[in-house]
Design brief:
Blueprint lengths: L2 H5 L2 H4 L3 H10 E6 L4 E3 L7 E15 L3 H4 L4 E7 L4 E2 L2 H5 L6 E14 H8 L2 H5 L3 H12 L8
Antiparallel strand pairs: 1-6, 2-6, 3-4, 3-5, 3-6
Length: about 150
């Protein structure tokens, strides 16, 4: 059912057909209502998400001192069909760097990290195939990139 869709996801395009079939076997699916929080900045990451339908806004707490009292969130990105989010924490092994909220009705495929790694090995190794993209994301989020190439 999701084989063709998975093939269109940039993160998973580099996988062999047999690897993608394994991913399809462990996919979960969840629906979210408008405004519903999907992930929260600072929480531990155990899965990542691929947008099947709808739109997700990615928000990050403002880093300015003036905003720290009221925890103001700033929109940093939007994800739509075929795009993914929540995977950066899996690469860095740090808490989630941003929150994600449904914009309208949203359906997401969910990939559990433990199942992913059991089938395909460490996420970091697979995601290294997209290393430049992650380094750019790290710079955008944290002002510097961690060394992901080791």
């Amino acid at each position: 059912m999701y084989e063709i869709f998975i093939e269109s996801v940039p993160l998973l395009k580099s996988l062999e057909l047999s690897e993608r079939m394994k991913i399809v076997d462990v996919l979960g699916m969840r629906s979210f209502q408008d405004g519903e929080k999907i992930i929260m900045q600072g929480e531990k990451a155990e899965c990542f998400f691929i947008v099947e339908s709808g739109e997700v806004k990615i928000m990050m707490k403002s880093k300015t001192k003036a905003d720290q009292q009221d925890n103001t969130e700033v929109e940093i990105a939007r994800c739509s069909r075929g795009q993914y989010f929540g995977e950066l924490a899996l690469v860095t092994n740090k808490p989630r760097a941003a929150s994600a909220y449904a914009v309208g009705e949203v359906k997401c495929l969910i990939i559990d990290v433990q199942a992913f790694e059991r089938l395909l090995g460490p996420c970091k190794e697979i995601m290294k195939r997209n290393i430049t993209h992650y380094e750019e994301q790290l710079v955008a989020l944290f002002g510097s990139s961690m060394d992901l190439r080791d």
